[in-house]
Specification:
By secondary structure, the protein is of the alpha/beta class. The chain has a single domain, classed as Rossmann fold. It has a seven-stranded mixed beta sheet, with helices on both faces. Strands 5-6-9 form a three-stranded mixed beta sheet, with no helix packed on it. The protein is globular and about 50 Å long.
């Protein structure tokens, strides 16, 4: 069973539907016990970094996430869920992220012909092919919606990157933590294959 963390962020139902399409039981929940008993956990979300951290703390879900990671349960952050795993974001100065991974979230730079937010399909490179991308061809296209991007503090955790006004660290992996800046649940066949790979990752 996959627990999808509910912290009042957008885009949660579409993540649930993608897992159900793959035949995976999925539950949207704030309940600590349900989350900790799950086979895997997902932190999705669309919204502002500071507001999201406030909601996680309000519901005590930040502490639950730390427990999930410590217990070795496979954990996947999607879009805002990726950004919250890191130390800080230029979107919300002075607000600390979960700090589970080293790095910071920066605003996409202004550039000629580049629209912000970045909305649409972009191809991926695999600097370090991670477990989410087994069986997926490099240069496959996935769907992005974001104005801020990850600059990871360790190149070794970056498993996918994309170019859009900057080198976007589009996916990371470290131990039982996985995250994607793009939306696998909206990325058609490729996205479902990524989620299916996540479903088959065993607890550490």
């Amino acid at each position: 069973m996959t627990a999808i963390i509910d912290y009042d962020a957008g885009n949660i139902k579409s993540v649930e539907k993608a897992f159900l399409k793959l035949g995976e039981e999925a539950v949207i929940t704030k309940d600590r016990e349900v989350i900790l008993k799950a086979d895997r956990v997902v932190l999705p979300g669309v919204g502002a970094f500071g507001d999201a951290m406030g909601k996680l703390q309000f519901y005590g879900l930040d502490e639950v996430i730390y427990e999930v990671v410590q217990e070795g349960i496979p954990f996947l952050g999607i879009c805002l869920g990726l950004q919250l795993l890191f130390e800080k974001s230029a979107e919300s100065t002075g607000i600390k992220g979960l700090g589970l991974l080293p790095g910071e979230i920066l605003r996409l730079p202004d550039a000629s012909g580049i629209k912000i937010p970045h909305i649409g399909w972009n191809s991926l490179k695999f600097p370090n092919r991670g477990r989410l991308f087994q069986g997926i061809e490099e240069n496959s296209y996935v769907y992005f919606v974001h104005s801020y991007y990850l600059k990871a503090g360790e190149e070794s955790i970056v498993t996918a990157s994309a170019e859009y006004a900057a080198c976007i660290h589009a996916s990371v992996e470290k131990d039982n933590i996985f995250a994607c800046q793009f939306h696998p649940e909206k990325s058609s066949r490729v996205g479902l294959a990524i989620l299916d790979n996540f479903i088959h990752i065993k607890r550490a």
